[in-house]
Amino acid sequence: HETAPTLNVQHGGGAFIKAEEVAAACHISEKQLGRIFKKYEGKTLLSYIHDVKIAQAQKLLSEGDDSLKKISEALGFSSEYYFNLFFKKKTGMTPGDYRKAQPESR
What we know:
Strand order of the largest sheet: 1-2
Shape: elongated
Largest sheet: 2 strands, antiparallel
Structural class: mainly alpha
Oligomer: single chain
Number of strands: 2
Number of helices: 6
Order of helices and strands: EEHHHHHH
Distance between the termini: 45 Å
């Protein structure tokens, strides 16, 4: 029985790694990495990274007061605008609306 390798999609300073970096470190092609990852996780590497980014964004939005710009930068988005589009597509609400909907435990 094979065990699935673990993958930490963040490294130094919270920056997200790229599939090409993982593939290079493993000395395999990105395509081969994708097949292996899907075999163990049941989803693509990109989908997995998106899920991790959304979970991290939700945590930052609900637990802190950082600006949306700062959160988008911390998660590796090229702009706050793209972060807003991505977040809304994945969750059905904007980051600002998500933050407003959270209990006032911050």
